[in-house]
């Protein structure tokens, strides 16, 4: 399941974070980072998934 979340995070970062932590602070931060730049959103998403796994 973690590999699927990582692939979804690369394609759409907020979706991967949502599937990992739900709607919360990390989710909204990831949306903001993705809007500011796609790469920061991916980095944050991978970090959240790695921290939770």
Helices, strands, pairings?
Layout: H1 2-11, H2 13-21, H3 25-36, H4 38-52
Characterize the biggest β-sheet.
none
| Principal-axis shape | globular
Helices and strands, in order, run as HHHH
Mean pLDDT: 94
Assign a percent range to the helix content: over 70%
Number of strands: 0
For the CA atoms, what is the radius of gyration?
9 Å
Strand residue content: under 5%
Oligomer: single chain
Task: State the helix count.
Answer: 4
Low-confidence regions: none
Question: Which structural class do you get from the secondary structure elements?
Answer: mainly alpha
Distance between the termini: 10 Å
How would you describe this protein?
It is a single chain. Helix 1 (2-11) runs antiparallel to helix 4 (38-52). The protein has helices at residues 2-11, 13-21, 25-36, 38-52. With 53 residues, it is mainly alpha-helical. The chain is globular and about 30 Å long. Helix content is 87%, strand content 0%.
Describe this structure in a few short sentences.
This protein has 4 helices and no strands. It has 53 residues and is mostly helical. The mean pLDDT is 94.
Which descriptors apply to this entry?
mainly alpha
């Amino acid at each position: 399941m973690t590999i699927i979340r990582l692939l979804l995070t690369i394609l759409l970062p907020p979706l991967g974070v949502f599937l990992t932590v739900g709607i919360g602070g990390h989710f909204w931060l990831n949306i903001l980072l993705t809007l500011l730049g796609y790469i920061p959103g991916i980095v944050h998403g991978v970090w959240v998934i790695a921290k939770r796994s």
